[in-house]
């Protein structure tokens, strides 16, 4: 800046199959990662203690547990490329089943009881669209109205609001495990209101760092009540774009950053910063520009997700 002060940009990196080994963790630490993030949506609860203990033994970088939060996902499929064809019928089951092109189930379980005829279900960022056309005994029948391919544990949107708990049973258990193992940073996915923050504070306490992830319209609209209750916020542009037209995301990002900075709450930005690096060794010019522009907007840090988890 004009005073010649160099501002330190914080880097958060999600750990996944590509990075969960000692050599990669060491290299990431050496290159300035400030926080390793464990995504509970893609981590089995039985594996969590060992995952935390390995990271703690490999690095001094703090760890953040990132909750599943108030989101809907499809459950396990027979493979990671199940094809759904327009016009076909699909049975929606109330309990977890191994999904295929004719059968699917969703988590959390409370979703099924709230679905009604006429609902539109968008799986994996509109990769496949289902429309519920009939209720049959213990099943719902849907019609594929948009063809595509879907794998396991993909994000799901429904064309109306579904009531979801801000934290899942798995989140609660994971947070208790984290506290016992010395974790001092937690992220609340899909923070929609001050009440959501209060619920998670009851579990983790007031003496730890809480990052609220802003990734829904409700979260944006309730930002004023959320900011005083959290230590930091994170803008997840990917999930936010499921509810907001993609061309509006840059302006919404600028607005959220400005609001957070006015309240002296650090703000991080995630999703697609270096997405091409899931497959290549160098970013595109557009990605470099996006990173620079995000920082010029006033973001305090950047979050890498797929780039470091599977890239």
What's the quick description here?
This protein is an alpha/beta fold and 311 residues long. The protein contains eleven helices and 17 strands.
Task: Give the helices and strands as they follow along the chain.
Answer: EHEHEEEEEHEEEEEHEHEHHEHHEHEH
End-to-end Cα distance: 33 Å
Q: Tell me the number of helical segments per DSSP (H or I, 4 or more residues long).
A: 11
Classify the secondary structure makeup into a structural class.
Answer: alpha/beta
Estimated share of beta-strand residues: 25-35%
Describe the protein's architecture and organization.
The chain is α/β, with parallel strands linked by helices and 311 residues long. Helices cover 29% and strands 26% of the residues. The chain contains 11 helices and 17 strands. An 8-stranded parallel beta barrel has the order 1-2-3-13-14-15-16-17, surrounded by 5 helices. Helix 10 links the parallel strand 16 and strand 17. The longest helix has 14 residues. It is globular and about 60 Å long. The model has no long low-confidence stretch (mean pLDDT 95).
Highlighted features:
311 residues, alpha/beta, eight-stranded parallel beta barrel, seven-stranded mixed barrel, 17 strands, 29% helix, globular
List the SSEs and their pairings.
Elements: E1 10-14, H1 22-30, E2 35-39, H2 48-58, E3 63-66, E4 72-74, E5 82-84, E6 89-93, E7 103-107, H3 110-114, E8 120-123, E9 128-136, E10 139-146, E11 148-150, E12 155-158, H4 169-180, E13 185-188, H5 194-204, E14 209-214, H6 217-221, H7 223-226, E15 232-236, H8 237-240, H9 249-262, E16 267-270, H10 285-296, E17 301-304, H11 306-309
Parallel strand pairs: 1-2, 1-17, 2-3, 3-13, 6-7, 13-14, 14-15, 15-16, 16-17
Antiparallel strand pairs: 4-7, 4-12, 5-11, 6-10, 8-9, 8-12, 9-10
């Amino acid at each position: 800046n004009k005073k010649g002060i160099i501002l330190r940009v914080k880097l958060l990196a999600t750990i996944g199959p590509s990075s969960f080994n000692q050599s990669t963790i060491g290299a990431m630490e050496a290159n300035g990662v400030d926080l390793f993030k464990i995504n509970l949506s893609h981590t089995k609860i039985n594996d969590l203690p060992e995952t935390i203990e390995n990271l703690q033994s490999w690095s001094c970088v703090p760890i953040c547990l990132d909750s599943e939060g108030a989101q809907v996902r499809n459950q396990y499929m027979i493979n990671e490329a199940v094809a759904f064809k327009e016009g076909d019928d699909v049975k929606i089951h109330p309990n977890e089943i191994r999904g295929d092109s004719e059968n699917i189930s969703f988590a959390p379980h409370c979703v099924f009881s709230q679905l009604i005829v006429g609902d539109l279900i968008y799986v994996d960022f509109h990769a496949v669209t289902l429309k519920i056309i009939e209720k049959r005994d213990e099943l719902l029948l849907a019609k594929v109205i948009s063809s595509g391919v879907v794998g396991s544990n993909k994000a799901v949107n429904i064309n109306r609001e579904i009531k979801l708990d801000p934290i899942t049973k798995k989140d609660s258990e994971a947070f208790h495990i984290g506290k016992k193992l010395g974790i001092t940073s937690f992220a609340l996915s899909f923070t929609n209101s001050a009440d959501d923050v209060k619920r998670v504070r009851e579990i983790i306490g007031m003496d730890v760092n809480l990052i609220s992830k802003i990734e829904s319209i409700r979260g944006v609209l309730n930002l004023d009540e959320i900011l005083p209750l959290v230590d930091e916020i994170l803008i997840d542009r990917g999930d936010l774009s499921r509810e907001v037209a993609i061309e509006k995301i840059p302006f919404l990002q600028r607005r959220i950053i400005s609001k957070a900075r006015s309240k002296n709450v650090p703000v991080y930005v995630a999703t697609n910063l270096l997405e091409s690096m899931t497959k290549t060794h160098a970013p595109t010019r557009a990605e470099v520009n996006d990173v620079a522009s995000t920082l010029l907007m006033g973001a305090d840090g950047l979050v890498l997700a797929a780039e470091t988890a599977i890239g």
